[in-house]
Write a sequence for this structure.
C-alpha cells in the first residue's frame, strides 16, 4: 500500500497530472456515454469528428489563455481580452464589408493588419496603466472591459456586420494538411510563446517579475518593460482569437463576440496549474486547461443540456480544481488522513495562517 | 505601499481631506451632470426625473452596498449579478408553483447569504483567491437560473404586484416605489454598521492590512466570511427588488451587473485594495451611472453603447484621481 503510493508520487506530483487526469476521465466518460465520440474520419481530404471539433473550437480560448498565462505570471490579470476580441473582430469585419472585393487576399490582410494594430495600441494602453501609472491590474483592465464593449458596438454601430469573404472565413473554418487551420494557428502561437519564454531567459524574467517586481528591478531586470510587454502580447493573442470567433460565424457582433472568454481563459490558466499570485507559469498546463473547458462545453451540448446550464458544471470543475490545488486544502486533507502527525506539510501550513 | 500610507498618516487634517476628495469629486461630477441635463432639456428639471433614477436603480444600489463591504476588505465579488438573477428566478418559479408569498420571501432571502457564506468559507479556509471563488459562484448561480427554467417566468402574485404598483408620493404628484424605501433602509443600516460598530471597524482594518489585523487579534476570518455573506444578502434583496421592478424572473437578467456595481463602488471613491471608502460614496456612484443613462435617454441621438464608453472613461478618471491624491494603492 505504502510502496504503491510512494511509487506513484513522482507521477501524481507532476503539475500536469491532475489536469491531464481530468481530461482523460472526461474523454472516457464521453466515450462510455456515446461510443462514437472518439471516431475520426476523413471526408474530402479533411479530418472530421468530435475530437477534431473540440480542437478547432478550443483554438480561440487557447490563444487568449496563452496571453493570459503570461499576464498572470507577472502577478496581473487581463479582464479586457473579451472586449478586445470583439473590437478586433468588428474592425476586421467592417473593413472587409466596406471593401470592393471581400474575397481578395489583400483586403483581408489589410483588415487583419488594421485590427491587429488597434489591438496592439489598446494592449499598450493596458500596459501603460499597469506598468507606468501603477494601477492595480484587475481594475486597470476593467476599464477597457467595460468601455471596450461600447467601442466594439460603436464600430459596428450596434448592428451585426455580416461578411462574405472566403479567405477570412478560412481563419475559423479552413483546413491545412487535413487539419483545421484554427488549431494550427493556435498551436503555432503556443510554440512561438513557448520558444520565447522557455528557450530564452524571458520566461525566467517574467516569473521573477511575478515573484517580486521590486526585487527583480533591483536585480537589474526592467520590470516595467516586461509588465508592459505581457499586456501587449495578451492583446495580440486576443485579437487573433477575435478573428477566429468572427470568422467562425462570418459576422461581427459587438455584444456577443468573445463574451465571457476572459473568465474561461482565467479558468484555463488556473486549471493548468499557474498560480493567480504570479511567479510561476505553465504554458502546456494552460493548453490542457483550455482543452478541458472546451471538452466540458462540448460534452454538455452533446447531452442536450442548454449552454447556460453548462455554467453549473464549470462551477463544479472550478471549485474542484481550485480545492485540489490549494495548499491549505491539501494540508488539511493530508493531516486528516495521517491522524495527528502533520507530516511534511509545514511550509504550506505557514501560508494558511497568514491569509493573503 | 508603506511609504504612501506613511504620508497619508503624517497629520490628521490632510489625511481627513484626502480621504474625502474622491467622494467630493463624485458629488461635484453628479451636480455638474445634473446641471448639464437641466440646461439642455426642459423636462430634466422635473423632480420626478430624479425620483426615476432612484426607482430604476434601487436594486443596483442595494447590491452596490454589499459590494462596498467586500471591496473594503480588499476582496471582490463577481457573483452578485448572477445571484440577483437567481433570486428573482427562484421567487418567480416558487410563486408560479403556488408557494405563499411570505415563504417565498424567506427562501429567496436565504439562498444568497448561504451561497455568500460558502464562498467566504472557501476564500478564508482554503486560501483561494476571492476572484476565482466568486467566479465559480457566478457560474453556479447563472447555471441554476437556466436549470430552473430556460425561459422567463412572469409573476402574478398579489403581494408582488402590489409592491410593484404601490406609489408613495407627495401632493405634487411625484412618487417613488417601495423598492426605493427598502434600498434607503439598506443604505442607512450599512452606513451605520460601517461607521459605528465594531464589525465595521474590523472591515476597514482587514482591508487596510489583513496581517496587522490578525496580529492585533481581530477576527479576520470571521469578518471576511461575514462580508461575503452580507454581499450575498444584499444581492438577494436586490434580486427581490428587481423582481418587484420587472414582475418576472429571467435567466439572463442582470448579466454584467457585477461590473456596473464594481464601477459604481470605484467611482464612489472606494479603493479597490481595500481599507478606504464610504457607503455614501457608493450611493453617489450609483447615481452617477443612473444620471448618465438618463442623459443618454434624453438625448435620443446617442446610443446605449455610449453609456459603456462613458462609464469606462469615468472609471479611468476616478482611478487616476485616487492615484494622484495618493490614497493607498498596490
Amino acid at each position: 500500500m505504502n510502496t504503491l503510493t510512494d511509487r506513484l508520487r513522482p507521477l501524481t506530483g507532476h503539475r500536469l497530472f491532475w489536469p491531464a487526469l481530468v481530461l482523460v476521465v472526461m474523454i472516457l466518460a464521453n466515450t462510455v456515454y456515446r461510443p462514437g465520440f472518439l471516431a475520426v474520419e476523413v471526408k474530402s481530404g479533411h479530418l472530421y469528428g468530435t475530437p477534431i471539433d473540440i480542437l478547432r473550437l478550443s483554438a480561440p480560448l487557447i490563444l487568449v489563455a496563452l496571453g493570459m498565462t503570461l499576464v498572470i505570471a507577472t502577478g496581473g490579470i487581463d479582464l479586457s481580452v473579451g472586449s478586445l476580441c470583439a473590437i478586433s473582430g468588428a474592425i476586421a469585419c467592417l473593413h472587409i464589408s466596406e471593401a470592393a472585393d471581400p474575397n481578395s487576399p489583400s483586403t483581408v490582410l489589410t483588415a487583419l493588419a488594421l485590427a491587429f494594430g488597434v489591438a496592439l495600441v489598446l494592449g499598450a494602453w493596458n500596459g501603460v496603466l499597469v506598468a507606468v501609472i501603477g494601477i492595480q491590474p484587475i481594475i486597470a483592465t476593467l476599464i477597457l472591459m467595460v468601455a471596450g464593449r461600447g467601442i466594439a458596438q460603436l464600430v459596428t454601430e450596434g448592428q451585426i456586420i455580416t461578411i462574405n469573404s472566403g479567405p477570412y472565413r478560412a481563419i475559423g473554418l479552413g483546413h491545412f494538411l487535413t487539419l483545421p487551420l484554427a488549431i494550427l494557428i493556435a498551436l503555432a502561437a503556443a510554440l512561438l510563446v513557448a520558444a520565447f519564454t522557455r528557450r530564452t531567459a524571458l520566461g525566467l524574467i517574467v516569473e521573477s517579475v511575478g515573484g517580486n517586481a521590486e526585487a527583480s528591478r533591483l536585480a537589474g531586470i526592467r520590470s516595467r518593460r516586461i509588465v508592459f510587454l505581457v499586456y501587449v502580447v495578451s492583446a495580440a493573442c486576443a485579437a487573433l482569437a477575435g478573428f477566429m470567433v468572427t470568422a467562425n460565424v462570418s459576422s461581427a457582433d459587438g455584444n456577443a463576440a468573445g463574451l465571457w472568454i476572459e473568465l474561461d481563459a482565467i479558468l484555463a490558466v488556473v486549471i493548468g496549474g499557474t498560480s493567480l499570485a504570479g511567479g510561476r507559469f505553465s504554458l502546456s498546463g494552460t493548453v490542457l486547461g483550455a482543452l478541458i473547458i472546451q471538452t466540458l462545453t462540448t460534452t454538455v451540448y452533446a447531452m442536450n443540456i442548454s449552454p447556460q446550464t453548462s455554467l453549473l458544471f464549470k462551477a463544479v470543475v472550478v471549485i474542484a480544481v481550485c480545492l485540489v490545488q490549494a495548499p491549505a486544502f491539501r494540508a488539511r486533507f493530508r493531516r486528516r488522513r495521517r491522524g495527528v502527525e502533520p507530516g511534511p506539510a509545514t511550509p504550506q501550513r505557514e501560508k494558511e495562517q497568514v491569509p493573503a | 505601499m508603506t511609504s504612501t500610507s506613511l504620508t497619508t498618516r503624517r497629520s490628521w487634517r490632510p489625511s481627513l481631506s484626502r480621504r474625502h476628495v474622491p467622494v467630493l469629486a463624485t458629488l461635484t461630477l453628479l451636480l455638474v451632470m445634473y446641471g448639464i441635463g437641466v440646461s439642455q432639456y426642459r423636462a430634466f428639471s422635473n423632480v420626478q426625473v430624479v425620483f426615476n433614477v432612484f426607482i430604476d436603480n434601487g436594486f443596483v444600489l442595494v447590491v452596490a452596498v454589499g459590494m462596498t463591504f467586500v471591496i473594503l476588505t480588499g476582496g471582490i465579488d463577481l457573483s452578485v449579478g448572477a445571484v440577483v438573477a437567481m433570486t428573482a428566478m427562484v421567487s418567480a418559479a416558487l410563486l408560479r408553483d403556488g408557494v405563499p408569498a411570505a415563504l417565498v420571501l424567506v427562501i429567496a432571502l436565504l439562498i444568497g447569504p448561504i451561497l455568500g457564506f460558502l464562498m467566504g468559507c472557501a476564500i478564508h479556509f482554503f486560501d483561494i483567491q476571492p476572484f476565482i471563488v466568486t467566479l465559480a459562484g457566478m457560474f453556479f448561480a447563472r447555471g441554476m437560473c437556466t436549470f430552473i427554467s430556460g425561459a422567463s417566468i412572469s409573476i402574478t402574485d398579489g403581494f408582488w404586484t402590489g409592491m410593484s404598483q404601490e406609489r408613495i408620493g407627495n401632493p405634487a404628484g411625484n412618487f417613488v416605489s417601495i423598492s426605493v424605501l427598502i434600498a434607503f433602509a439598506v443604505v442607512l443600516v450599512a452606513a451605520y454598521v460601517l461607521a459605528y460598530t465594531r464589525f465595521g471597524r474590523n472591515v476597514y482594518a482587514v482591508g487596510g492590512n489583513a496581517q496587522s489585523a490578525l496580529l492585533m487579534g481581530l477576527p479576520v476570518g470571521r469578518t471576511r466570511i461575514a462580508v461575503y455573506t452580507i454581499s450575498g444578502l444584499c444581492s438577494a434583496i436586490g434580486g427581490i427588488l428587481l423582481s418587484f421592478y420587472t414582475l418576472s424572473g429571467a435567466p439572463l437578467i442582470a448579466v454584467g451587473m457585477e461590473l456596473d456595481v464594481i464601477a459604481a463602488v470605484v467611482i464612489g471613491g472606494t479603493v479597490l485594495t481595500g481599507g478606504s471608502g464610504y457607503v455614501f460614496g457608493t450611493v453617489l456612484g450609483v447615481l452617477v451611472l443612473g444620471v448618465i443613462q438618463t442623459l443618454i435617454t434624453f438625448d435620443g441621438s446617442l446610443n446605449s453603447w455610449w453609456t459603456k464608453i462613458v462609464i469606462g472613461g469615468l472609471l479611468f478618471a476616478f482611478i487616476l484621481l485616487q492615484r494622484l491624491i495618493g490614497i493607498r494603492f498596490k
Q: What stands out?
A: Chain A touches chain B through 54 residues (CB under 8 Å). The beta strands of chain A are 40-43, 46-49, 160-162, 175-176, 179-180, 251-253.
